[in-house]
Design brief:
Number of helices: 7
Oligomer: single chain
CATH class of the largest domain: Alpha Beta
Structural class: alpha+beta
Largest sheet: 5 strands, mixed
Mean pLDDT: 93
Order of helices and strands: EHEEEHHEHHHH
Shape: globular
Number of strands: 5
Distance between the termini: 29 Å
Radius of gyration: 18 Å
Strand order of the largest sheet: 1-4-2-5-3
Length: about 220
Amino acid sequence: LGTAPLVGFPDDNCWYPPGTLTAVLDAFAADPALAVLSGRQTTEDGRPSMLRWLPRPAAVTRRTFMRTTIMSTMFFRRAEVDRAGGFDDALGVGSAGWHGAGEESALLLAIVDAGGPARYEPALTVLQEEPRDAVDEAFVAKMLSYGCGMGHLWRSHRLPLDQLAWYSARKAGAVLVRTATGRRTQARADLAYLRGTVAGYRGRPPRELAHRAAASTTGPGA
């Protein structure tokens, strides 16, 4: 990994169909300028997983990244990762702070903002089951921290506010629909994500994550 010219960061519960890595290698070989390649994630039976993926190939930009990329679907040219400074270790699952997501998007945006071409190819498929098929209280808590990470990402990268408003309105609508149809745990997860997004954008941790915010500023090396 230390010297590999191309890198990916698959989730521990995703898997690649046969031929996926060969297709990735071929895409980068065919386009020496390509910095990032993203595929589409689906369940094994072909349903979209985790995102409302764009149906057609597209450039990955500040406006399209939310429908074209997640960690498990992205492959990077290693030199571009190094040039961007790698991951921000204050973000994401396993970080000491309260921003539980956004590390891969922050890296992607740093590369794109520096002029690195990024492309989305939905024919390139990564498989992972849809986490919303089985939600529980742990999922609700995770969505709160994920929302905090995305709100922070929006503020720190000065992403378009109209787009944030659109995504937030969709999430608020989902809360109402899922509550009305009896999917109350899913509704609470959506509400937690929405609360986290607002908190992350404002830079004020929600009460449930205040202890993690405090630990990240008072721990070793802070």
